[in-house]
């Protein structure tokens, strides 16, 4: 299956879930570059099988310095133990009603 075929299938699978869509995009975006060319991104952007959100987000995800791209790069980083503990503490406070 070609990259575009894979991404169209991913788009269909993740319709309605931004987090799923960003996980698929994460596979193609690295801190210092991407696995797509500009032509690849344009081709996918013009594909009618993607939702409007997916089309806009794919274009933003491959632009240097965009918040969408930064979000996806951050998804590639492992969470530090202190951040995990902070989230756990917040969850416990919410669960206990304090």
Draw up the topology in text.
Layout: H1 3-13, H2 18-26, E1 29-30, E2 33-34, H3 38-45, H4 52-61, H5 67-75, H6 81-96
Antiparallel strand pairs: 1-2
Helix pairs in contact: 1-2, 3-4
User: Order of strands side by side in the largest beta sheet?
Assistant: 1-2
Number of DSSP helical runs: 6
Major sheet details:
2 strands, antiparallel
Mean of residue pLDDT? Answer: 80
Q: How do the helices and strands follow one another from N- to C-terminus?
A: HHEEHHHH
Query: How many DSSP-defined strands?
Result: 2
Total domain modules? 1
**What is the helical fraction, as a range of percent?**
55-70%
Bulk shape: elongated
Distance between the termini: 51 Å
Instruction: Point out poorly predicted stretches.
Output: none
Strand content: under 5%
Which class best fits the helix and strand makeup? mainly alpha
Over the alpha carbons, how many angstroms does the gyration radius reach?
16 Å
Main traits of this protein?
mainly alpha; single chain; 98 residues; 2 strands
How would you describe the overall organization of this protein?
There is one protein chain. Helix content is 64%, strand content 4%. The radius of gyration is 16 Å and the shape is elongated. It has helices at 3-13, 18-26, 38-45, 52-61, 67-75, 81-96; strands at residues 29-30, 33-34. The protein is mainly alpha-helical. Helix 1 packs antiparallel against helix 2 and helix 3 runs antiparallel to helix 4. The protein has one domain. It contains 6 helices and 2 strands; from the N terminus they run ααββαααα. The chain has a two-stranded antiparallel sheet with strand order 1-2.
């Amino acid at each position: 299956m070609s990259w575009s075929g894979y991404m169209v299938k991913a788009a269909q699978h993740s319709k309605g879930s931004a987090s799923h869509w960003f996980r698929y995009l994460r596979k193609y975006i690295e801190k210092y570059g991407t696995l797509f060319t500009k032509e690849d991104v344009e081709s996918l952007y013009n594909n009618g099988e993607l939702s409007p959100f997916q089309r806009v987000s794919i274009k933003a995800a491959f632009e240097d310095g965009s918040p969408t791209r930064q979000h996806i790069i951050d998804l590639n980083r492992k969470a530090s133990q202190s951040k995990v503990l902070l989230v756990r503490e917040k969850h416990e406070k919410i669960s206990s009603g304090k």
